[in-house]
Amino acid sequence: MSRLENDFGLLGEEAKAYLDRVHGLHIGGREVATRDSYALCDPTTGREFARAAEAGPDEIDAAVAAARTALNGDWATLRPYERERRLLRLADLLEAHERELSEIETVCSGRLLPNTAGVDVGYSAHVLRYMGGWATKLEGQTARLSVPYIPTGDLQGFTFREPVGVVGAIVPWNVALGIAVWKIAPALAAGCTIVLKPAPQTPLSALRFARLALEAGIPPGVLNIVTGSGPEVGELLVRHPDIAMVSFTGSTEVGRKIAAEAAGQFKRISLELGGKSPVIVMEDAEVAAASEAAAWAIFANHGQNCCAGSRLYVHRSLYGEVIDRVVAIAESIELSAPLLPDAAMGPLVNQAQRQRVLRYVEAGLAEGARLVTGGTAPDHVGAYVRPTVLADAEPQMSSVKDEIFGPVLMAAAFEREEDVLALANDSRFGLGASVWTRDVDRVHRMTRALEVGSVWINVHNALDVALPFGGWKDSGVGNDLSEAAVLAHTRIKASVHHHA
Length: 500
Ligand code: NAD
What we know:
The protein is α/β, with parallel strands linked by helices. It has 17 helices and 23 strands.
C-alpha cells in the first residue's frame, strides 16, 4: 500500500467499531436517524468510509426544543457544583478515550494523530476542567442604593449572572473537536444548553463526545449535535427564534452572513473568523529558533490553522538565512498518510481545499512572487500539497491579502521597525502576530502597535485557556477561552430590594 493512503487496519478496535455505519443526529440524548445521509470520505483516497445524517428543519426544531427543555429543567436544577463535577468527569472520559477520538478525528480530517490526540483530546480535557471550575465562580455585585425618587426605606441592589439561553454553535473542520469544546465548555459552565453543528467533513468526533457527555452525567438535551452536508443546517440554526446566541468559528465570509442574520433578531454573537497572521523576525532575533518556529507556524496542521503564520517578514540582514532554514525544514517534510505513526504532514481536508491552495500559489507566481520550494502536489488522488515558500511577496498580491488555509508561506524582507509594522497591519485580518526579538523596549512598542487580538513574543500560536482568544477587524467579534468566554454566555439581571 502506498504511504500516501490510509491503512484502516492500523485503527484501534474502538475506532474501527465506531466508524463504519450511518451516524444519526444526537438529540435529547438519543441517536436520531434521518431519511437522507451523506458520505464521509478519506482525504487520502477520496473513498467513502462512513455516512452522516442530513438534518432538515424538523430535526433542527427538535434539537432546539430539547435544548430549551433541558435549559429550564434538568440543567437548571443542578447546583453549580454538580455541573462542575460532570464537566470534570467528562474531561476524564475524554482522556480515557484518547486513542479512539484522535483516530476518528484523523480519519475524517487528514490531520496527524499526535495533533488530534494533543489538541482535540488532551487540550480539550484541560479546557473542560478550567471551564468546569467557572460553574461555581459566577458572581454578581451588591450595592446599597439611593434611588432619588424613592425617599424612604432602605434600598439594596443585586446583580445576577444568568445563562443567556440556548446556544447555537457552528464549527469548522480544522480542529473539529477542539473548537467544539471551546464552544461547549463555557456555555455549559454558564448554565446554557447547546445545539452544535460540526463541519460537514468532521461530524463524528462531536457525536462520539456527546455520548461521553451522557456517560459523565450531563443530562439528555443539554448537548445536541446536528449534522448536514451543506450550509442549510447552519442557516436554520442561526435563524431559529429560540437560539439566543450564535457561537461561530469559521470563515470571515460565513461569519459576515451570520452577523447580519443574528442582528435582526438581536441575538448574541461570538465570531472567531479567518486570519493572515504575520511572523516578524527582527535583526536581533535568535535566528535558528525564529526560523524553526516560522516554519512550523505555517506547516503545522498543514497550514490549516486560523492563526497560521502565513506572512513572514524578516529583517533584510537575516532574510536569506531565515529563508534557507525554513526551506530546509520544508524540504525535510515527507508527505504521508496521517494514520502512519511517523507521518510528518498529511493531506488537506479534501480536493476542494487542495485546488484552492494550488490556485493561490499560481496567482502568487503570476503576480511576481518567487517560488523557493514546493508549489506542487504529488500525482496522487489524496488531497496533498507540498510545503511551499514564496519569497519577495508584495502587499497587493492576493496570496498575501487572502487567507489560503494551506501550507503556503509568503515571505518578504523589511528594513525598519516602522516599515514592518505598516506591512503587518496592512491586512483586513487581525487575529495574531508574533515578533522575534530580544529587545525589551521594542517588545512593548510593537505589542502596542500591532492591530491583532493576540501578540506572541518569541513564540507563535500559543493559546492558553486562561487568556482570551479573539480576532480584531475581519477576524471576528468576541472571544473564546478564559473568563471572557464564560461571561459572554451570561446576561445580567439587576434586582432592587426595598425594606420599609
Ligand atoms: P466555513 O466558514 O466554510 O465553515 C464553518 C462552519 O460554518 C461549517 O460548519 C459550515 O458548514 C458552516 N456554514 C457554512 N455556511 C454557513 C451559513 N451560511 N450559515 C451557517 N453556517 C454555515 O469555514 P471552514 O472552511 O470550515 O473552516 C476554515 C475557516 O475557519 C478559516 O477561515 C479559518 O481561519 C477559520 N477558523 C477560525 C478560527 C478562529 O478561532 N478564529 C479557528 C479555526 C478556523
